[in-house]
Amino acid sequence: MIEPATWPTLSKLLDEWLDLPPESRAGWLEGLSPEYNEILPAFRTLLEAQPGDTFLNTLPVLDGAGEPSVAGFTADMHVGPYRLIRELGHGGMGVVWLAERADGAFERRIALKLPVGPYVRQFAYFARERDVLARLVHPHIARFYDAGIDRGQPYIALEYVEGEAITAHSDRRTADIRQRLNLFLDVLRAVQYAHTSLVVHRDLKPSNILVTADGDVRLLDFGIAKPLTEGEAQETELTRIGGRALTPDYASPEQITGAPVTTASDVYSLGVLLYELLTGERPYRLNRATRGSLEEAIVSADAIRPSQLRLSEDKARSRTSTPKRLARMLAGDLDTIVLKALHKQPSERYTTADAFAQDIERHLHGEAVLARPESVWYRARKFVLRNKVAVSAAIAVVGALAVGLGAALWQVRVVRIEQQRADTQAATARAVTEFLQNDLLAQASPNMAGPASAPDPDLKVRTALDRAAARIGSRFEKQPLVEASIRQTIAEAYLDLGLYAEAQRHFERGLELRRHALGERHPATLEILNNLADTYSEQGKYQQAEALYTAGLPIQRQLFGDEHPTTLAMMSNLGLIYRREEKYAQAEPLYTKVLAVRQRMLGPEHPDTLFIMNNLAVLYTAERKFAQAEVLHRRVVELKIRVLGPEHPSTLVSMNSLAVLYREERNYAEAEPLLTKVLGLRQRVLGEQHPHTLITMNFLAGIYALEGRYAEAQALYAKVLEIRLRVLGKDHPDTQDTIQKLEALRRHTGNEQAERAR
Amino acid sequence: MAAARRGESEALGTLFAELYPELRRLAHARLKHHRAPTLLDTTSLVHESYLRFLRAGQVQVSDRAHFLAYAARVMRSVVVDFARESAAQRRGGQDVHIALDTDAARVPAGEVEILRVHEALEELATISERLVRVVEMRYFAGMSEAEIGEALGLTERTVRRDWEKARMMLAAALKRH
Q1: What pTM does this model have?
Q2: Which chain B residues contact residue A50 at CB under 8 A?
Q3: Which of A50, A63, A120 sits opposite B36 (nearest CB)?
Q4: Residues of B in contact with A49 (CB under 8 A)
Q5: Which of A14, A43, A62 should one mutate to test binding to chain B, selecting the residue with the greatest count of B CBs within 10 A?
Q6: Alpha-carbon distance B67 to A118, whole Å?
Q7: Count of alpha carbons within 13 angstroms of residue B162, beta-carbon side
Q8: Which residues lie below 8 Å from residue A416, measured CB to CB, with a gap of 6+?
Q9: Residue of A nearest to B35 (CA)
């Protein structure tokens, strides 16, 4: 081994040696100056190595031992916490393997996506979006479980779905138009759910929309297409691994041109899908079946009306129809609906999947659909937009044409609402931010306050909120959605401060505004409705809360499905109100339903599952269904001890509730040791003076009294009273409660002593 | 890539993380395609990956030389991992350490050479980082002397000289073991 310090000298000698013709080298070496004596042995070793001309000339032959799969993955290989079982398929972005947890933590098999190539960079996306995607829980959406990187290899764990593409499924079953529409409605509901969770699919196509053997629709790859398709345009014949070309068949015009992709892009892809479900054809007739001409058509050609396609006998037969009948069924509403979804301009499509679904439902129910064919009026309006110079003249034209169509006002309104929707979301966010910065935060910020109004660093949040609220006034008369969002923000801040009356006022106004501007059936309306109901509930205004929840719940279910986390939370909240109102019979089915869903979706040990389980047990106790209550309560306590720990405050709450049950059952022998334990833990964990500690102490004293252990009861009550007097004061209801209990106990024992003395 | 040129190891790590699976995949695809033991054309793999990253906008045309230098380092890891894997699989799944003397007969010469060169390069790195770069680009990535010179800012003659020196050093090291 050569000493690094000697390398510069060695290197210099090597240079000289290599420069010499081979025959002179030996002589040169002999005549070397003695100053090199020290490194000469090392130098000679190097020279003696005498690498042949071919040494390291080429990399040796390697063989692909072990038959690696496309991207070098093999069965039993571990990727992250998963073990690969078999390859399910591969495509441009990578490989998909069936896999399972290597540690056996879960039995379920999953689909493991293994992206390869330049997608690795986009993978940072998953680190950010993982939580959002994991919360995407819907019966028609394949679950996203997990994502990570193992030794440079990204992986995405998804629910494994066995099924058939929706189009193939429908054809095989010779589903008629109505059946196909109903199946498609399920797809729309799932997409709507994802969109309200702010997740766009971007790659909706039949191979991503499967129907299981049970006939359930399942959407795959929600939210993961975004980062993955970004690199796809760069795929080339040279580097593509699977050889499967990525066709833009379902891509929207903005995806082809590179314009921003939004939820409207999914609406477009769904339009292509609906087109295909109904007709078995694609929307554009191409001169040449090349990718280029397809892209051109998507961007600029008009889609053929479904009813005007000359459909073959075969296609009609697989729809249980004939070409003529099919054309008649498609003409009119369905033509209009499909073409609206396929509009080149995103803002002219259905603004939401829900609006799309509603129109299909209207059609199925024989009602008039909202979508309008591209009327003369519509084209005139476009003309106005294109020729703004001649606006005033054109408006007269528009007016005349619209009146001529006989539905002028109604149409104007529809168009105006859609226009608003298209541009208000971003505008609202901007206006809200501006208001909060200029009217709320600026009050306390030295950077933001103008010279006229000196900032006040000691400003109380409450005061700032009050002032900001006062400034809303009628400033937003023409922007009801902006006002609603501002009021919502202010109300939430009040809520944090525990100022319920103020919060209520702003939530109420916000709800009114959104109901008016967006209607009842809108996620934003529902959101503020929930806020308000919670606020009522906190104030003990159960009737008002109940009214709101019962009004909102059916809409919530329709929009988001029965198993959406918010749906479950609403049911749980409504259940709590029923319980408080002692409407136990109404509370119970809500609780049992929520519990069942959460057990299935979140697992039996999830905190949310345990929460509802606890509440159901408490409800059973209130209903005096002691047997059921006890089974459930014991189970809750057991699970909480295991999952949360024996001293977790939530565990203690459930133990306390179990003791209540024992008391109701007059099972003091069980209640007393349990409470003693809870008390000990609370004293240690929460402290002697914590309200919860005192509640348990008070409770235990009561049990002593019931057991006839009056001296112990009295001593404990006295202790509670001493602390409450000190901490809460004499007039506090809790203090008064203890005083009364103590007096009752004294009277009782006094009476007993008197009896005995007699 | 601009950051990588400024020499931040983090940027280098990022590029490495992206290149590694890419080259590995390309190499596997190539080997699988041939089935029989194959000369891995690492030269074209490295150039392909460059084009791919170029199209993806992840490198600039002006970064080509630097990209190829990094790609060569990555290629070395990929090739070494290959050699380890195929040697390990032949020996029933055990990990291969480089004490190959006893098992040399059972492991094809190519794998032995690769693994031993790799190990010798780790020694060489303590003496001259530049020679290691040259070997990586020449031996593992099959780059031309002109390309290597461009990447390292050296004349072709110096590259040729470095390569000769490195071969001597490596030959000596391989004999020693």
Answers
A1: 0.40
A2: 171
A3: A63
A4: 168-169, 171-172, 175
A5: A62
A6: 14
A7: 24
A8: none
A9: A64
Chain A positions touching B79 (Cβ under 8 A) are: 59, 62
Q: Hey, what CATH topology would domain A162-232+245-284+299-371 get?
A: Transferase(Phosphotransferase); domain 1 (1.10.510)
- Amino acid in the structure at residue B45: L
Cα distances (Å, whole numbers) of residue A485 to A433, A439, A442, A549: 10, 14, 19, 21
Q: What is the pLDDT of residues A679-709, one digit of tens each?
A: 998 888 777 888 788 889 999 999 999 998 9
Q: Per the structure block, which two tokens stand in for A88?
A: 């399910």
Nearest C-alpha neighbor of A564 from the set A538, A602, A528: A602
Per-residue model confidence (pLDDT) at position A459: 55
Distance from the Cα of A48 to chain B's closest Cα (Å) equals 8
- List beta partners, residue B169: none
Average pLDDT over all residues of chain A: 78
A61 to B38: CB separation less than 8 angstroms, yes or no: yes
Contacts of B169 in chain A (CB under 8 A): 2, 46, 49
pLDDT digits (tens, 9 = 90+) for A387-445: 333 333 333 333 333 332 222 233 333 333 444 444 455 566 666 666 665 666 555 44
**How does pLDDT run across A116-154, given as a tens digit for each residue?**
654 445 555 555 566 677 778 888 998 888 877 777 677
What is the C-alpha separation between A315 and A322, in angstroms, rounded?
Answer: 9
| Residue matched to tokens 């009356």 | A501
Q: How far apart are CA A193 and CA A352, in angstroms?
A: 10
- Positive or negative, the CA dihedral B110, B115, B118, B123 is negative
| Domain residue ranges in chain B | 2-176
- Residue-by-residue DSSP string for A422-463: HHHHHHHHHHHHHHIIIIIGGGT-TTTS-SSS---TT--HHH
Vertex A350: Cα angle to A271 and A279 (nearest 5)? 20
Flag if B110 and A62 touch (Cβ within 8 Å). yes
Question: Which one-letter amino acid corresponds to residue A561?
Answer: G
Indicate the domain borders of chain A: 4-49, 74-160, 162-232+245-284+299-371, 407-539
Q: What is the pLDDT of residues A594-642, one digit of tens each?
A: 998 888 777 788 878 888 999 999 999 999 999 999 999 999 999 988 8
- The answer to whether the CB of B43 falls within 8 A of the CB of B141 is yes
Chain A residues whose beta carbon lies within 8 Å of the beta carbon of residue B108: 60-61, 63
Alpha helices in A645-690 (DSSP H): 649-664, 668-685
**Chain A residue with the nearest C-alpha to that of B117:** A56
Residue A505: which of A477, A475, A465 has the closest Cα?
A465
Decide if A46 and B168 are in contact by the 8 Å CB cutoff.
yes
Classified as helix, coil or strand, A78 is strand
Q: Give contacts of B114 with chain A, Cβ < 8 Å.
A: 59-60, 62
Fold of A74-160: Phosphorylase Kinase; domain 1 (3.30.200)
Instruction: State the burial class of residue A206 (Cβ atoms within 10 Å of its Cβ: 0-12, 13-18, 19+).
Output: buried
Q: Where is pLDDT greater, at A378 or B103?
A: A378
Residues of B in contact with A51 (CB under 8 A): 167-168, 170-171
Q: Which residue in the set B48, B140, B168 is minimally distant from A238, CB to CB?
A: B48
Distance from CA of B175 to the nearest CA of A (A): 7
pLDDT band at A178 (very low <50, low <70, confident <90, very high): very high
Report yes or no: A231 at the B interface, CB cutoff 8 Å. yes
- CB contact (8 A) between residue B21 and residue A51: no
Out of B56, B142, B167, the one facing A51 most closely (by C-beta) is B167
In the numeric block, the tokens 């024996």 are attached to A646
Give the other-Cβ count within 10 Å of A596's Cβ.
Answer: 13
- Beta-bridge partner residues of A149: A154
